[in-house]
Each structure stands twice: as structure tokens, then as C-alpha cells.
Amino acid sequence: MSAIASITVNRVAVTMPSQEKEGETHDGAHVLVAEIAERLEELNDIRCGFAGDLVQHLACIATNSRRAFDLTVALLHCNYDDVLASYQEQAERRGVTKQDVHWEFMHEVAKLERLYPVLHKVIMATRAQALAHEDPIARSETVGRAGNVGCDS
Question: Using an 8 Å Cβ cutoff, are 61 and 72 in contact?
């Protein structure tokens, strides 16, 4: 029977017997969940109750828009690739048209506007920077919705 890291104690993996059937493999999700749980615990140590609030906000975003959730998670760990990628790059990667990507982005991120207006403005302002070289219609639409918001807001 193999052992898998299922929890961490003081950042040291604790192994427990695997419940895998012979021939099955794990995808590593359990290790990531353990790491996330540890980080949430650390967050609560720094600021009581903040981890629960963060999880609740992320869950709300995920419930309303998976795309907005993906963008939010990426931005939280400073990965701007999806927000800054041109519509053309995204369209080619996904096998759809630029218009499809633009429409989806505007539609999905707009769902954040009423729930998390500051997050919405940050995403739109970041996207507006990426559109400086693209379609003027998309650029003006994004800039108009974002306003003059910097990441410090």
C-alpha cells in the first residue's frame, strides 16, 4: 500500500495510507487542498476571520461566473496572462472568434460589477491596458466601463 501526503503540520507533509485501488493514480489535488487549508489557517492567524471571508467571496464569484473566478484567482497570485492576452491570442488558443472572446469577457466580468465593483474596475482597467493595440471599439468599451482606476484603488 502506498502512502500519500494528505495533510501538513507545520509545513511538513504527514503521510497516511492510501485508499487507492491497485492501478489507480491520484491527480495531486489532495496535496493542493492541504496546502490551501494550511495557508487559510495562516491567514486566520494574521487576521482573525479573514480566511473565511475570502473563501466566501471567492465562492460567490465562482457561483456567479467561473470565468470571473478564474480571472480573480489569477490576479490574486499576480498572473496577468489571461487578462493581458489579446483577444486574438485567446481566440486562437480556444478555437473561437475574437468577437466570442470579447463578448464572453464583457458578459462574465460584468457579473462582478454589482457584487464587487472594485474588483470589476481593476480587471477592466488592466484589460484596457492590454487593448491599447487592439480593436478601437473594444478598447473604448472597456475603458469607458473601467474609468480611471489604478490597481491601488
Answer: yes
Is the predicted pLDDT of residue 69 greater than 90, yes or no? yes
Q: Please measure the distance between the N-terminal and C-terminal CA atoms of the chain and give it in whole angstroms.
A: 52
Residue 142 to residue 147: CA distance in whole angstroms? 9
**Who's near 78: CB < 8 A, 6+ residues apart?**
none
pTM confidence score: 0.65
Taking the CB of residue 55, how many other CB atoms lie within 10 A of it? 13
Those residues whose C-beta lies under 8 Å from the C-beta of residue 61, and which sit 6 or more positions away, are 68, 69, 72, 112, 115, 116, 119
C-alpha cell at 108: 462574465
* Statement: residue 94 has pLDDT above 60: yes
State the Cα–Cα distance between residues 63 and 59, nearest whole angstrom: 6
C-alpha cell at 148: 480611471
What's the whole-number average pLDDT of the chain?
79
Mean pLDDT on 53-81: 91
Q: What band does 126 get if pLDDT is binned at 50, 70 and 90?
A: confident
Report d(CA 46, CA 132) in Å as an integer. 39
Secondary structure (3-state) at 19: coil
